[in-house]
Amino acid sequence: MTDSLENKLFEYFGYKQFRGRQKEAIEAILQKQHVMTIMPTGSGKSIIYQLPALLLPDLTLVISPLIALMKDQVDVLRRKKIDATFVNSSLTKSEREKRYQAIGDGQYKILYVTPERFRKKEFLEIIAKRKISLLAVDEAHCISEWGHDFRPDYTRLNEIRKVLNNPVTIALTATATPEVQKDIVYQLGLKEEEVHQIHEGIDRPNLFLQVQSLWGEDEKLKAILELIKQHRGSGIIYFVLIKDLSNMSELLHRNGVKHLVYHGDLEAQQRKSRQNQFMNNENQLVLATNAFGMGIDKENIRFVIHAQIPGSLEAYYQEIGRAGRDGKDSICTLLYDEMDLNIQMEFMKWNNPNAEFYYRAYQLLKGDIERINGEGLEYFKEQLTYKNRRDYRAETVLGILDRWAVTEGDIEKKNLQIINDLPDKLSDQEYLDVKLKNEQQKLYKMMMYAKLDTCRKSYIHEYFGLKHAERCMACDNDL
Q1: pTM of this prediction?
Q2: In this structure, are residues 88 and 114 in contact, taking their beta carbons and an 8 Å threshold?
Q3: What is the C-alpha R_g of the chain?
Q4: What CATH code is assigned to 2-199?
Q5: Hey, what CATH topology would domain 207-344+439-478 get?
Q6: Identical fold at 2-199 and 207-344+439-478?
Q7: Residues 243, 269, 73: CA angle, nearest 5 degrees
Q8: How confident is the model at residue 199 (pLDDT cuts 50, 70, 90)?
């Protein structure tokens, strides 16, 4: 089997050998075992389901939360002459109907969808015509409401697996604490003894972790200029707030530092253009929010700077994981200004409306949906927050109601509508309090990381439930 697998790996993907424990995972799948794989960012998780997909007789269904990535992934596969496609909300009605027809007719070996696609009756009817050899759940930490990017539709995966006649399943992620790992297995409707678990750890020996404590914008600018000067090659500087990013961009321009800017307020075409610039230039610096990251698989990123503290170690680890994918030494520096904790505390406040606020928002939508669609977001916010423009709970509620399939459509497109009742959890203040406390604990752990005077990699390993190597070559650099 080994020679055959390696031959197939080279035939389809051009690689002469497997990395890490890829082959172990693939062999388990081909032996019809369920698998959960936790591997560092950039370690080649997609090969683990893509290669079996080409060796198994029927369709491999990949569930991913990342619409922005699907087209890129499918384009790469199609350039390799692999019959893959995706179905998501970016398609027109006619495009979607053509793909449904092709899927029903037996075309494609790999199909990418979001978990929300299973809300659609027409998709369920089409997928019922196909036999599923493998179900791959990418970004599997989204299953857990205690993870850092919870998607409620992921909690339906047990039900989805039953609809698909319980196919062999692989769950893949780069970041999962022990609690989240157990939740992934539970939400899939499996037992731990049924799942072949592969945990490669999270260590990236070529990444050197640093923290610089400072105070105020002047010190932050000075630190950024020095880091840019020290480290040649491409780099990312992450910010939490767009206004702070824009201000630093102006200061860097004054200091003659060429760079790109990327954040969620840019038009889609601008974001695409700037991402392409970053990917295609050898020495390119970008100032970005966490909107920048999906689809960033550039090998020679030499440094990642966090100009403001992230909200969790999960988010931090994912973002620094974009550095050094070519295996060469790369620097990951957190610029820690204690005042920046206030930004995350504000975010937490707006991201966690209480049960009463959810109820008021739901009743407002239920009773006044036509006017809300007519007058837009500002009208909706005014009714809930009394013209406080710095209160972003209304935006949070709209996003959460969409994720929980309470609403569909878009307030900006004037087609928002209620399709389900308010979920019990959003009416349960005790549950919402636990959720808020969980986020507070994550931020506390992130703050403790910033204040460490011991090995930072060891701290991250312990957070994710792993033992750190006895000797860490980067420890001296981490301090």
Answers
A1: 0.84
A2: yes
A3: 23
A4: 3.40.50.300
A5: Rossmann fold (3.40.50)
A6: yes
A7: 110
A8: confident
